[in-house]
């Protein structure tokens, strides 16, 4: 019997999710792989079972489909072998804000934020009860770059960072590890899926390098891992300034510049 926790990975049929699957399988973990494309999941599962001698379950699910999402929540609640959740499935935005359709906005927001939150919420109570477990949420550096012009996608990724930091505050004292991973441009299908030729981008990280770096952060129990950030202190300074802002905004009175002269 495998004594390592089983790893539940969404968006495991390609890119970052498939690479996490490979890396955790090589570490000896059993896997539960989730995505819509069952044949790709089956191919990956067959290879990892043969190469790594681990058990791999495949769950075909569209995370924007309420019935599929509910079934995954039940699995996360009930399967006590699952000790690591990699909340990775996501999609990018095609076009500017003014080009978006109602259905497109629904799909983007519900996949990148709602599904991720629901899956974390399904497993967190069990993790808290056992005083163990890890939740990894894949955000993006776009979450702090409104200048990049993909407002809705960026907003969903700002949500992922905020949620992860909030969960970290609540869950880490209970023994649950929460990590936000913030990649920059990484060579995966997400670009093609949103109509962008990845070869036109100036700096693109290979997916193996991204996931291996994220796993270094995971092993160190970092709460926020930004693999492309060269100067780690920049993040520390930003966090210090943000926390300074918090002490300054707890005031009973408006700031002097807003006091009406009348
Ligand atoms: N690549 C980058 O430059 C980059 C940068 C920053 C952050 N990220 C984030 O990294 C994560 C993984 O993306 P990736 O770059 O690896 O892209 P990817 O290769 O396109 O992978 C996306 C994964 O999500 C799955 N997925 C998409 N829609 C789904 C749905 N409705 N239900 C269930 N699964 C769904 C896809 O599988 P199916 O199509 O089989 O469902 C696929 O396995 C995303 O959250 C993305 O925002 C990527």
UniProtKB/TrEMBL annotation:
Keyword match Kinase: no
One GO MF term attached to the UniProt entry: oxidoreductase activity
Coiled-coil segments on the chain, per record: none
UniProt keyword annotation of Plastid present: no
Lineage top rank: taxon: Bacteria
A Pfam family: adh_short
Keywords assigned by UniProt, alphabetized: Oxidoreductase
PANTHER family named among the record's database cross-references: NADP-DEPENDENT 3-HYDROXY ACID DEHYDROGENASE YDFG, VERY-LONG-CHAIN 3-OXOOACYL-COA REDUCTASE
Family, per entry: Belongs to the short-chain dehydrogenases/reductases (SDR) family.
Designated name of the protein: SDR family oxidoreductase
Species this chain originates from: Mesoterricola silvestris
């Amino acid at each position: 019997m495998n004594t390592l926790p089983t790893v539940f990975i969404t968006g495991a049929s390609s890119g970052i999710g498939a690479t996490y699957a490979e890396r955790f399988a090589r570490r000896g973990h059993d896997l539960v792989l989730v995505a819509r494309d069952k044949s790709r999941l089956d191919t990956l599962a067959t290879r990892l079972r043969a190469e790594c001698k681990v058990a791999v379950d495949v769950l075909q699910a569209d995370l924007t489909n309420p019935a599929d999402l509910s079934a995954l929540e039940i699995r996360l609640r009930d399967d006590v072998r699952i000790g690591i959740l990699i909340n990775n499935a996501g999609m990018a935005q095609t076009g500017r804000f003014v080009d978006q359709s109602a259905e497109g906005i629904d799909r983007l927001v519900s996949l990148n934020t709602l599904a991720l939150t629901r899956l974390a919420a399904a497993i967190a109570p069990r993790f808290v009860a056992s005083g163990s477990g890890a939740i990894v949420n894949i955000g993006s550096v776009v979450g702090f770059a409104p200048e990049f012009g993909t407002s809705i996608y960026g907003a969903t990724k700002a949500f992922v960072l905020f949620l992860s930091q909030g969960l970290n505050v609540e869950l880490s004292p209970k023994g649950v590890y929460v990590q936000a991973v913030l990649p920059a441009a990484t060579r995966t299908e997400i670009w093609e899926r949103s109509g962008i030729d990845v070869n036109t981008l100036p700096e693109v990280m290979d997916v193996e390098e991204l996931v291996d770096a994220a796993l270094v952060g995971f092993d160190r129990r970092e709460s926020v891992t930004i693999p492309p950030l060269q100067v780690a202190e920049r993040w520390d300074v930003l966090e210090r300034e943000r926390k300074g802002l918090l002490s300054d905004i707890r005031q009973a009175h408006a700031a002097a510049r807003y006091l009406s002269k009348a």
